[in-house]
Amino acid sequence: ITTPEKTVSTIIISKQPNKLSYTSGQKLNLSGLSVQVNYKDNTNKTILWESGKLTAEPAQETVLTVANHNGKTITISYGGQTAQTDELTVGKAEQATLSITGAPGKIYKGSSFTLQTSGGSGEGAVTWSVVSGSATVDANGTVTVTDTGEFQIKAVKAEDGEYNQTEALITLTAVEKPDSSGGSSGGGSTGRKKGSYSNGCL
To answer: In the 8-state DSSP scheme, what is residue 133?
Structure first.
């Protein structure tokens, strides 16, 4: 903390930081901030953030969250006096790519298996649904195949306080179970929906 050469009466934000709008998880950057320092002898001067003489709460490089920082101001201090910036805007972030795993290499009519998700972010719950085709899926991702042909399963990871909702889609194909003399096989393929990547095992 820098000790002023004269007694400070007030400080005033003369220029706001270049960036006050963030996405959850980004770091606070106070570049561009400047403060007018008024002294008790009726003189004043401008101090830039880049000078290293000012302190801030929250501090430079603080990782910002919706819960803790959205709508809050930054307190700038110098010479025992403080001033407030304009309010921060911190929006929800996009989740990491969500993928669906766990599909068997061969899928037969009448079979059951359980899918899982990997990736995503935050605390949102995962829900499952059948988009198309002859299959059912329960709340735990357990799929039951009711007929042959292609079917699609979707996983949605809900939004929470810091992240937006995301989803993934997997396209699979079921065939008749081969008899003892052999037969054809089915498997999974990858699919995409609304910009979210998904994953299947062959």
So the answer is: S
